[in-house]
Amino acid sequence: MVGSPKVRAVVLSLALTAGLTGCSSGHGTPGPGPGEGSQARSSSTAKGRADFSQRDMVVTARCSTGDSGGTVVTVDGWNPQSLTKKAHAEFRLPDTVLTKVDGVRPGTALEDLCAPTNLTDNDDILAVRSLFDRDFTKLAVVIQDPESKATHVGYVDRSGKLTDLTGQEDFGTTPHEDNAAMAPDGSAVWFTKEVDDKNYVARRALAGDHKVADQQSVEFVGERHVFVVGTPDTAVLGNSARLSPDGRRLLTEGGLLDLSDHRRFIGPDAIEQAPPLYCDKKTRSGGAIGWIDNDTVLCTSGFSGQRFSTLDLTPDAKLSAPILPSNDHKNFVLGISPDGQRFAFLSVKETERHYFVSDLKPGSTPKKIEPSGEFANMLDALFFLDWR
């Protein structure tokens, strides 16, 4: 998934009315609502509808209020050509899960999904994607006690069960653990923590005693998010990131980083030292917004009338001719097909929004896909996560 602006996410914040006293380390608690609700939904869901390992699907997420109250994060997989549903999963969030924050900390990428500030701005798509494991069976969360303001990290599974990985704190040491992100294989949650005004990035394994491991000191977290890539997992503290298909290169904050199998953490210092990647090398301008293949990126060409171009990363390569015809719309990339041949984008003109699929060759004519059924009803509430 690349350069993928958020179409819309429902603005919703949770009332944090329950404490953390019932959430001890290694023990899960069920989500709110009638006990039979989640079971009925699970039993009525066809096995294939829960399978996100299928190929050639666009994956979206949305945040909404459930039938019996509370917040539900829904993940759906769609056929990119017909926009019919291929896969589906739901995560019912207990009231103590943080979805909106008032300051810099505590932080959670769930805010980008549940309480966005800009309907077409999702530069932190990789941080939102890192809330989930590879096949969307677990959702990493930050849990807040409304009285002590302690924050823990954990995860919610599809049944609505909450597992608190931080567990009970000792006297005098109120935990401040934020920015939870799930390893792609679902084995650990990475997070930021603040102790005595010092900041760290660390992880807690889902198995065993969940003790803090791989702790790294960082000077400042601010509004950065944690996202996790690769196997073994590498945690990155940064913004605006896009990962190459082979997982070996990372575009982040305008720079290009090579990833190493032996590196478990990449922090702001390494990102700042990364060589900048300019799509127009002569004017040192133009941003790369995603990957077409392991050696080719998709580039912007201005905000209004966005036509997009491609750039090979080999030395002396030149920017391609524009992909889309001349237009006066605002166009936002939603995803690039796994074979690197097509891309989906949202085209906005005043109050009109249309979904297109186009080849990635210069001079292509995009095809408008008319959504129907469920997709049409949810178009204004979808966050595009992936095209797999």
From TrEMBL:
Region of interest: Disordered: 22-53
Domain of life, source organism: Bacteria
Protein known as: Lipoprotein
